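Continuing from the previous page of notes. For each protein in this section, the sequence appears first, followed by its structure tokens. Read the first protein now.
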Amino acid sequence: TANYKLLTIKKNVTVTIAGTLYGKIDIQEGAQVTFSPVGGIVNIETMTVTGKAGNLTRIKFGSCTSVRVKDNVIIDQWTLVNVDGPKVTFYLGDNNNDSEQFLVKGDNNVIAANVYIQKGSLNVNGNIILMKGWFIAEKVENEGKLVVWNDNKCTSSTDVREFTRTNLSSKEAASQPESPTGLTVTASPNPSSDRFRLQIQSDKTGFVTLKVTDLDGRLIALQPGIDPNSTIQLGSAWRSGVYLVEISQGKEKKMIRLIKL
């Protein structure tokens, strides 16, 4: 409940932060942090958050909250911010003549909050990112692959901006290998606000097994005995987030990521 100039949340710690005034906050992998400030306002100079594959970091909020940041917010990787939470807005800015930054630099992140930067930039450099909210800044830059920007209240996947292979330069695109023969899987739509349609194709005999996990590694679905050339639908009951789908046939495996809005 106290205020701190420097606050470090160690690995795998679960904590509720009820103070209102902080300097630097450093949140390490696997931490489960709930902000519940008195009056719904928390003031921070800088905040850095990171997670790890199989050890997600979660940032939650006890109620609608204004997060007022003096300098910057850095989200590294494998972090969920306010997923299925209340209305939260990050306000970045101060009275100094400098620029602030909200940076999502790592992979497999979900940010479900509004971001307003009076003077500065919002930068997304990681891959497989879901940004749900209103985003207002002097400059908004996306350099990642499969980054989805979506209104936090939106229910239609037709309103989604999707950045996939179009982010690659012509040289990078030319270096991509051709689709191999054998086992292949495609998903549409992806992202989706409802369900996904998976088309599985193989030039080999033998049943296919489907396995779905979330970013925590928890098993969501397991379906063996699928015909090698078939189409299945799944995901209508899933919550918003990123899911990993593994399709295997014998020793051959294919992995795709699905984003549920």
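Done with the first. The second protein uses the same format. Note its length before scrolling.
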Amino acid sequence: MSQTHLYGRPSVLILCLWLVLAVISSMVGVGGGVFAVPLMYFVYRLPMRSAVATAVLIVFTLSSVATITESLRADSALNWQLIGGLVLGALPGAFAGFRTAHHLPQRTLKICFACILAFAAVRTTIANPGLAEGLHGNVPPGAMPFVIGTGFLAGFSSPLLGVGGGVLAIPLLLFLVPGVRYVEARACSVATTIISSGVASYLYLRSREAKPALALPFALVAGVGAVIGVVLVHK
């Protein structure tokens, strides 16, 4: 019996709603997992771990398309030095998060998911927006350990909670890295999410906990939303 038959085909209404959520995710710099995990859990009744596993497939698509779109713009906000530090931490973080996810009860995962969202909302709201001129490619040397640590936490949260890591990375970058602007933080966070969600996707597909047939239509719509979101954020 196919996965699409088991879980039902997404309706046009749900896909339209998901398009709006994908645009918002791309604009604010998250991979869409904050919306995809509840969607998989409440609407399609997947167990929490399977909902997380399926969500990271969608997050990988959204972050990849958004980063490609961002890189093609003349006014791209990508800062490759910042991304390099984040990726350096995100790689081991993703593997550690995957192992941790299999040692935590379902209820604990739900509580962690809620706490991460609450932290991100408060921290982003009160964060200093940074200097208007931005980093211009140079991360202060003293800030690099904090960037790597932020990358580790972002990577760790991806397989653990199904999020791209932006809900942690953006507020932490605004707080810890002098001069970083929100537009840079969001673009670099999304780029790093390719690595964290890519590793998580591979691991969850290998363990057969993800539902790729269910994720496919949402991933395709997420790609469209990612392009629209990047265009809008620069306007």
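What the second structure shows: Confidence is low (pLDDT under 50) at residues 1-5. The first helix runs from residue 3 to 7. We return to this in next week's lecture.
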